[in-house]
Amino acid sequence: MNKKVAVILSGCGVYDGSEIYESVITLLRLDQRGATVQCFAPNIAQMHVINHVTGEEMPENRNVLVESARLARGEIKDLSEARAEDFDALIMPGGFGAAKNLSDFATQGAACQVLPAVLELAQSFASSGKPVGMMCIAPTMAAQIFGPGVVCTLGNDDDPAAAASREMGVEHQACEVTEIIEDSKNKLVTTPAYMLAQSISDAASGIYKLVDRVLELTNK
Question: Is this model's pTM higher than 0.90 or not?
Answer without folding.
Answer: yes
